[in-house]
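Narrative progress, year one. The postdoctoral researcher (J.K.) led the effort to move from monomer predictions toward full complexes, under supervision of the PI. The following entry was the first complex the group processed end to end, covering 1168 residues in total.
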Amino acid sequence: MVLDDPAARPAPQARTDAPWRHDVKKEDLKVIGKPIRKVDARSKVSGLTRFADDLTLPRMLHMKLLRSTQAHARIRHLDVSKARALPGVKGVLTGNDLPIPFGILPVSQDEHALCPDKVRFVGDPVVAIAASTEDIAWDACRLVEVDYEPLPTVGSVHEAAATEEPRIHDYGVRGNIHRLENLEFGDLAGGFAASDHVREDTFFFEGNTHLPMEQHATLAFFDRDGKLTVWSSTQTPHYLHKALTRVLHPLPAHHIRVIACPNGGGFGGKSDPFNHEICAAKMTILTGRPVKIALTREEVFWCHRGRHPVLMKARVGVSKTGRIKALDFQSYLDGGAYGSYGTASTFYTGALQTVTYAVENYHFRGVRFFTNKAPCGPKRGHGTPQPRFALEVLLDKIAHDLGLDPAQIRLDNLAPRDSLTANFLRIGSMGLGPCIQKVVEGSSWKTRRGTREKTADGWIRGYGLACSSYLSGAGLPIYWNGMPHSGVQLKVDRSGLVTAFCGSTDIGQGSDSVLGWIIGEVLGIDPLGIRVVTSDTDLTPVDLGSYSSRVTVMTGNAAMQAAERAREIIARGAAEHLGVPPSRLVFADARVFDAEDPQKGVSFADAVIAAESRYGTIGTVGSYTPPKTAAKFRGGGVGPSPSYSYSAAVVEVEVDPATGVYRVPRIWVAHDIGRSLNAAVAMGQIEGGVYMGLGEAMMEEMAYRDRTHKGQRVFVHKIPSLLEYKSPSTLEMPDITTYVVEDPDRNGPFGAKEVGQGPLLPIMPAVANAVFDAVGVRVDEIPVSFEKVFAALEAQKNGKPGRYGPDNVPPVDFGDSLKVKTPWQGGDGTAWNEPKRDKKAAR
Amino acid sequence: MLRLPTFTFHRPKTAAEAVRIKCDHGNEAMYVAGGTDLYPNMKRRQQTPTHVVSLGEIGELRSIDVRKDGGVSLGAMVLLSQIEAHPYLRQHYPAFVHAVAEISTPLLRNMGTIGGNLLLDTRCTYYDQTHEWRESIDFCMKKDGAICWVAPGSPRCWAVQSSDTVPVVCALEATVDLVGPQGARSLVAGELYRDDGIQYLTKKPEELLTRLHLPAPGGWQASYVKLRRRGTFDFPVLGVGACLWMSGKTITKANVRLGGAGSYAIPAAETEKALVGRELTDEVIAAAGALAMKPARTMDNTDLDVYWRRKVAPVYVARALQACR
Ligand SMILES: Cc1cc2nc3c(=O)[nH]c(=O)nc-3n(C[C@H](O)[C@H](O)[C@H](O)COP(=O)(O)OP(=O)(O)OC[C@H]3O[C@@H](n4cnc5c(N)ncnc54)[C@H](O)[C@@H]3O)c2cc1C
Ligand code: SF4
């Protein structure tokens, strides 16, 4: 008997009765919000979790990639014969073996697993070799002869703007411009004319990388039945499955199984399908033996997909009281060698400025260039930390120009809850005000800032504040389709065991546990007793992946729906068995009982038996599709989300005026999470975000060596190692005071919003603002390294402006803007000057 | 994963046997103490011995002895963490112990030895890279190549002296014992090093460092100040070792050595001169510190900006002198 007939289900959008229970009272919750441990915690801390690199299979081969030594070159000739002849070598692949290109976004299928004719950065893979040992594979790589014909190298946005030819890719807008966007909301000129104070500045945010502790690894096995299984450290098994299907054509999609192993950290660095994954898959098909590849730390730097270096120019017009009348924002992204998520990244540098503060009129121009660097992509905060840095520093400057408290200017500009922004993003719950108040009070901001208090060793204290917002999942999937973004299947067993199947991937953030908590809450059972089966494309329904902070909201909602459906069936069975109406039954403490007579009840397992006896095997499904977006203009697909989280932070710094060296003793951070599903895990995410943000603020950078040798330019990552790519240690980690602000949102499970990415965002601008508060100099560039503070102090001493930062952007013709009327101008979300497009392209 | 190349591992029981094995295999062999420097270098193929001679089972290299004059002799295989925890050393050689405690991380100090630290390979961000990286940029003269990336016109290598203890040990005028095929000899620490990134030691490759002798305490004050980006892990990009001999309040002799600023611990000679015969007042300290900018030969081959490192050198030298008060 089909108990859960999909055809009989109401469409999710039709439910207007706040289906995700955001308004449930805290005291009515048994699991949600409690600091119970993660479902996989003990395996993790005792070292039993098996990561991809822990896997072995009998007769397994080891694979290595030979990577380009050139930043930009044509492959004139490739000779692998000596490598092939080395005893122990079992398989050699070159670009010819994998001719079909792939890429995460349908609009930029620009990668090859092995470069067929041209290399685009030092680290681009050229040959894959599998051998009986890793050492032999490495030695064999040294025997490959590659003859390169060097091409001119493009190393920065300025160079890319000035280099029409050669093009790094033969697609894109023109020259080395990959994407170009120009969107105008409202009346910019009018907004600036109505402003009392206008300020413009240029900012730079250097690229940095994710630095997950786990280096990427993949194991692939093509069995005798023609089925391929790929175990990998990936955040997006579904997208990897799609890429494999494409590249391995004609192998049918349903013969490919991707299992995402527990990730030892991802942060966005494992969300693209990677060349090493595809090579491992191809190699096992070629050799018939299991093939493993485990990347070195240096290779992780080549995978990259981290923070784009972004040069920005921002102009803000405000009234006397600091109200934002107009914002003109330009971003110039250094995309590196491939498209990756870059199209989305470009839009993200413009999308979320309006979600924190009510911006009356807004103009965004963004351009992404190809350069000969490791490809950039999504890193925690994807595309939004750079503009956030610029905007928050600029607001700080404006507050100082006008003699206003930087906290107050933000409070005065807050975007209203339940509103549409100038660019048609739908804000639901909005707890930024309380976040600001929390950190202002906690840090004694009002009395301590601007005092330039001296420490015992003569360093000077300063305080900086900044805010931010982030989305709880992208409103649209990466490839256009009308299917759910997340699906959950529940199997309810007569033993009382509930098993949840879901394609979501735990990257350490706790998404497996989220499934357990939500199902446990709805069914009144111990979440640690639930079995969670995730991220296996053969066994689990599709979830799009662990990116854009989407999992808690989307998987959570799907889990809730599946659990409620199971509850309904079990309640019917138990009701009949107990002789009480189902509506009176309570599910709690692993029992199902009569609300009016709690003694009258059965154990959860017995309730399942009662239901299974009557209705047969119990299984339910749940799925989630985000609400339709209000933005209908081209480019409006990036930015919409079911809900937005909010964060505010105050950073304390102590600056050594003699050297520019500074330390960060304390940080206060508040985050509006909607509802905290688990206090301990939420705090962990917030503090992890602060840590990562501090690294970006103080030291992390993808620096490149740019030299000339034998008449040729040498352009390579300067420091691709854990020792020399500087990231803070535990000793740099300040004391953090964390405030979890809860403003439940209608669109999240129990009102939950994201927490994985948002809390990172305010840290970088808050550090820069704090340095200014301490010693009166501005570093308009990330990282705010000691040398830059020193340089600004020196400039100040010599009577020049106490500032370090960029002062120009490259000349780019952005063409005409797409013009969109704001909601308060009566706009309907379309661009009034947009050429007609067919419906599909409009997405 | 980065893997070690294959090699033969020897475990001699005595210093003499170690020297003999080393001599048997010549350039193909290297000593290993804690391996925290050598093994990473081997993984990156910067050093490629096919015979590795472990000093781990030579008991005579493991002792810490307080001499009759109150000075201390340390065996080369004494662990850095043993030094940190040694009550006598902590009391009488705080600057030396501080330098040791500033080395990398607790884990590394549990493996790393004082001998290995004194003989630590010089460092350079063009050299401390994997084989693949060095291949992509083209190998430099310190390993496999012909040019120097840091100073392309230069006939020599400018790799950086990066041990934290060396500037202190040199400033203290400690001595070291070496054992070679021809027998044993002793050197003042400063004489162990040369101003060259490749041939940074005066000792012959087969000579084994057996002991370090610290001078008896009394009559001098020493200090060590380290500049690095983070509070742990990082090698010094400037390490100032200072030792001042006093008669009453007057400085009779001054040794100031700059580590992390060149291929050996460079004497800040002008600074030293400006101190002798003076009292350690704020003015004297500032003036003496300012004279340290010139000898700091920073190059663009470590962490942090090359010019900045040079400009702040006076501040750190002054702080080191301050710490001698
Ligand atoms: C991540 C990292 C960070 C580090 N940070 C620092 C730092 O901040 N400061 C610092 O000073 N060092 C640092 N080091 C370097 C190193 O760990 C230490 O210097 C350590 O003391 C080296 O000792 P070892 O016993 O491990 O040396 P080994 O690696 O065993 O030997 C080092 C060298 O000395 C030779 N050798 C060793 N003992 C003898 C002997 N008795 N006679 C003759 N030759 C010998 C070896 O052949 C080798 O060439 C760091 C290393 C790493 C990996
Ligand atoms: S200083 Fe020059 S020769 Fe020496 S290691 Fe560095 S690049 Fe090579």
